[in-house]
Write the structure tokens for this entry.
Amino acid sequence: MPNNADTVKSALEALLSDLQQTRKVFQKAQLSDFNTESFYKNIEKIRCDYSRPTTSELNKGNNDRAATIIAKQKLLESTKQLSGAAGGRRMLKSVHGTYIRAYDSEWKVDLMRGDPREWEHWFVEDWGGKVVFKAIHSPGRFLRALPCGKVDLVPTHPHFCPELIWKPFRNSDGTWSFLSIHGTWLSGLGNGVVCCMLECKSSEKFTLPWW
């Protein structure tokens, strides 16, 4: 039967595998600034950083604490990988076949039916394991969730407005759902309205085609 050290070693190897999968995600997105050498240096640093506190706790006999450290770190990396996978030049397509559209002259969004054009183009940016949705228009504007359930656009930087930050979730059917800071879900309704809902059902699921 494997001992505690073997268990920790296996978990760290799994973590390394997860990070290598992240590299594949970046390459698939064709990010021009991706640096392979730097990436692997960071992997090794992360693995060493995780090993030190885990080994220390094992030496003290704190097996539960060591397991908790591993679980938290794996959750952190999985979340970052998820936000990275959702990122890039994307469109947000609802289950109704419509696309979230950002208006240029007004601070509002709705759903557009038909072939997507420029106003349906978004930059989905990683934000510390979560994402922000930046419209294509200039000056920059971001998708915001309001406490009342409405959704609009604002020019505020995410540093100063947590309502711009969404937590991504990948559903079992390959779609994505996005949770706001208010505990509500980004929703594209059949009547063309973009809002936030308390429950995650079919209208709260999106595909993210590239543009």
Notes: The chain has three helices and 13 strands. The two ends are 51 Å apart (CA to CA).
